[in-house]
Structures are given as structure tokens and as C-alpha cells.
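Practice record 12: protein with tryptophanyl-5'AMP.
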Amino acid sequence: MKILSGIQPTGRPHWGNYFGAIRQYIALQDNEQAFYFIADLHALTTIRDAAVLRENSFAAALDLLALGLDPAKATLFIQSEVPEIPELTWLLMTVTQMHLLEKCHAYKDKKEKGLAADAGLFTYPVLMAADIIGYDSQIVPVGVDQVQHVEVTRDLAQRFNNIYRQDVFVLPEYRVLDTTAKVPGLDGEKMSKSYGNTVEIFEEPKKLRKKIMSIKTDSTPVEAPKNPDTCPVFTLYKLFSTQAEQDALAARYREGGMGYGEAKQSLYEKADAWFAPARERRADLASRPDDVHAILSDGAARARSKVRDVLARAQAACGVGPRR
Ligand code: TYM
């Protein structure tokens, strides 16, 4: 199976990124081909500061490696180091109907708010389609918010194949985990940087505890029974615990006598223990930046050699590029 996914370096990654996507990347990295990249070209639609973007991209590489991405198994690279992708984007752009992009949520949301969108945001899904089909990807592990983009990718690939009457591109499928398709944030809404309701994966223990303690709960008194299913603390606790642990905490909610503070403390302990080894690995990797740069260079070289083949196929189909 050929796997591919990407993450934007727009800020520190959060639990939604981890449980929705990154954990899947790691679980799937033993496949015959796993390509994971840092989507810095996409991030240009929101970050306009060179130093910040470079720093974020490098930090994202540290994050993925620390969380368990193994460069001996998966190819890790930075999107902009594969210039064949923007080339492929243009070929796709010429078969992209405007109405398809007009309904894509990032653009639509901005427009509905009366904000001016630039062409980069409008054509964002075409670049993403090139990312995906450029590697003949079959499976794209993502959270539910990216499903629409994978569907657009399928449409574009199919349309290109139809127009040129050849199977140039492979049609990809998304892979979304049922239980973590849409991880909620501190307020119960989808966890998202733009809602300010995130918990960062590499949060310092002290800050982590403070954030968890600040989760809004209802005013049921300590003695009274509580409903775990409507409690954001319990929803997040489920991410980190086994079924038996969940059942035990749910029983404590229902029998009464447990304050929300205690549930928050349990969530804090679980989350802290879960990410502690990754925090240590990250500190170690950060002290060896040259090794990380070498991993990224090697990844970009591997990625380019794959995309070159796909691009050559696409160019041959539509009659551009060097004659072969
Ligand atoms: P990005 O950077 O916004 O998010 C990275 C991944 O995290 C998932 N995610 C979530 N999953 C569950 N619950 C949440 N609350 C949550 N928040 C984020 C996202 O679904 C995503 O899988 N456009 C992409 C980057 C990209 C890409 C690609 C992805 C560029 N090219 C090609 C796949 C294939 C994005 O902005 O993801």
C-alpha cells in the first residue's frame, strides 16, 4: 500500500493533529511506501514571515520524529523541496473547474465572513491534490476536516485521466479513524488552532496541568452523580485510556462524590505520561539539528525521484515537457 499525508507548519501541533492524523502516520509507516511531509507551501497562505516559517517547519520535523516517525521506514520531507509538485499543480489546475474550488471550506468560510481570499487559498486544494497524486498514493490518513480535499483530489485525477484517456493518476482514498476523526478541544468544539481551544502535544507539564484545570465543566456539586458522556474532560480522557480505565472513571462519575477536579487530575496524569517519552526524544533531536537536516535532505531526494516519474507520465499524456 502507498501511504501519504501532510501537516501544515502553522503552529505547535495539538492533540487533534496527533490522534486524528500523526498516530495514523506512525501506525502505517511499515507499508511498502509511506511519505509524510511538512506542507510549508500551504502554510504560505497564512504565514508571511520567513524566519517563522523556517523555524516552524524544522520544529514540525522534530515533532514527527519525536512522536515515532522512523526515517528508516517512512520518507519525511519538506514540501517546498520537491519543486515538481508545483509543476504538477499547474497541469492539474488546467483541468480544475472553478465550481469545485468554490465549495471548498477554507475558501468558502473566508468568503462568507466577507474577507478577501487570495488565489493561493482558492487553489489550495489543487496543490494538495498534486501532493497526493504526485506519489501515486493510495491511502491518505487524515482527520475528517481533510476528507473534502481528498474527494476533490479524486475528482481531479479522474478528470485528467478522462480528458487524456489514460490511467495517468491513481485515485486515492482517505483513511479516517472513527473514534478520533474530530478530536474536540477544551470547549467541546473541534480542536483547532483557529478556535484557540487546543492542547499542544509538547506542552510543558505545568502549563499542561493549568490548561486541563481550566476546562469548563458544569456546576453539578461534588456529591451529585455526573454524566461522563457530556463532559469534555471525560471525552479527552478516553483518548489516553483503555476501555477498562474508561469504565472505571465513568462509574466514578455516575456514583457521585467525585468532583471534576479529580477527573481533570486523572486526565492530566494520563496525558503527561503519554507524551513524556516523546518530549525527551524531542529534546535529544533538537540538540542534533544536523542529523535532522540530513533526514530531511534524504527524504526530499527520495520524494523527488518518485514525483519525477509521475510528472513525466502526466507531461507525456498532455504533450508538454521534454520529449521522451
Ligand atoms: P493540518 O495541518 O490542518 O492538520 C494536520 C492533520 O491533523 C488533522 N486534524 C484533526 N484530526 C482530528 N481532530 C481534530 N480536531 C483535528 N485537527 C486537525 C487534519 O485532518 C490533518 O490530517 N491541508 C492539510 C495539509 C496537507 C495535506 C496534503 C494532508 C497538505 N497536503 C496532502 C494530506 C495530504 C492541513 O491543513 O492539515
